[in-house]
Amino acid sequence: MSLWRRRVFEQMEAIEREIDQALEELFYERSMWDIKTGRIKPLAYVTEAEDKIIVSADLPFVLKKDIKLNVGEDTLEIEAAMERCMKFERWGTVQRSCEFKTFHRVIKLPSKVFPEKAKAKFKSGILTIDLPKKTKGYKIKIE
Amino acid sequence: MGAEAITVVETAPIRSINYCIVGVPDVGLVGLIAVSHIIHFLAMPEVGHLESDIFPPIVVIHEGNPKAPFRLYDKEKLAILASEVPLSEEALPILAQSIVDWAKSKGVKLLISVSGTAVQNRVDIETPAVYGVGASSAEKQLLGKVAIEPLEEGFMVGPHALILKECLKKNVPNVVLLAQSHYQYPDPGAAASIITALNKLLNLNIDVKKLLEQAEEIRLKTRELMQRTQRSMQGMQKAQEQEFPAMYV
Fold first, then answer.
1. How far is the C-alpha of A79 from the C-alpha of A66, rounded, in Å?
2. Which residue among A32, A58, A61 places its CB closest to the CB of B224?
3. Which end of chain B is less enclosed by CB atoms within 10 A, N or C?
4. For each of chain B's 249 residues, which pLDDT tens digit applies?
5. pTM for this structure?
6. What is the ipTM of this complex?
7. Which residue of B has its CA nearest to A31?
8. How many Å apart are CA B21 and CA B82, to the nearest integer?
9. Chain A residues with beta carbon closer than 8 angstroms to that of B226
10. Are B23 and B34 in contact, with CB atoms under 8 Å apart?
11. Which domains does chain B have, with CATH numbers?
């Protein structure tokens, strides 16, 4: 693939990411919970290093054994059952009728990764996943 | 727009105060979590609120009672100003002026801002350290006396930075306490460190056991506020606090 074509694709991917983020923010304006499924979205952030993508998520009331991660080439799904169900008995109108029992979030990754090389750790309630990137930068020889 | 755009409304008159602590949604929600615990632990009565047309159009309902989101508490000459909503960048200069003017009018002996300072390895830190910034040499000495390590070099961004500037301008004693914290996750552990530092600084005796026991519940219940606060911090370029300052200026 020529350098020009690669750049066009990279720009298109960047636009796609911006659209995804805008849609995600729009969703956040609505809520971070779903009373139908009893699922809560955890706080999670994606940072991009030169050779890997790092995703972290805050998972209170979760034990390591109850975390399920499903990694694809460009998505990461986090599902984690909480130790105890949470009920916001006095909060809002519909929320207080629901018991929340699981964290769930699907994250679109900013570039393609090797799913089989992903590594995760869970410490003090914070989940951190390192995902090595498939595409790395070009090495340029200095003349 | 003048400083009168934000008014401190006292629903119960306050004659004078010795100390005033300010905690607003910020890095790791540290300041807000800390002052909320102090308010509950000391059973501090609500004695007023901040009012302004430039605040977001929000009323909070607690125990069926509508309340302003930015409220004032006072007990035995200790006042606390606490906001339940993130502050917009535009409101910050006027807010800082109003808080400092009000505290000065009450003869405050020390105005204390409490917040977090983000550290990347927070998960590896069991008890976060607290750093202090003193507005003048007197406050620096005060921090030294209670062994609070000074922040030697760095940037401060946001409401506490502006309060510090106003205090310097108006000669109001001010310290800023910053606990090592998560940047974008609620951090009750960092809030507990802030309270431990306040205990030493103001000779208080506030137990943090319950705060630490409730840490996971606090993290869960403040997710949405943290999410919103993170966006507000982006607006005020809070990430600049992570940068190295120019060494030779």
1. 8
2. A32
3. C
4. 444 589 999 999 999 999 999 999 999 999 999 999 999 999 999 999 999 988 888 888 888 889 999 999 999 999 999 999 998 888 899 999 999 999 999 999 999 999 999 998 999 999 999 999 999 999 999 999 999 999 988 888 889 999 999 999 999 999 999 999 999 999 999 999 999 999 999 999 999 999 999 999 999 989 989 998 988 887 776 666 766 666 565
5. 0.86
6. 0.85
7. B224
8. 8
9. 43
10. yes
11. 22-240 (3.40.50.10900)
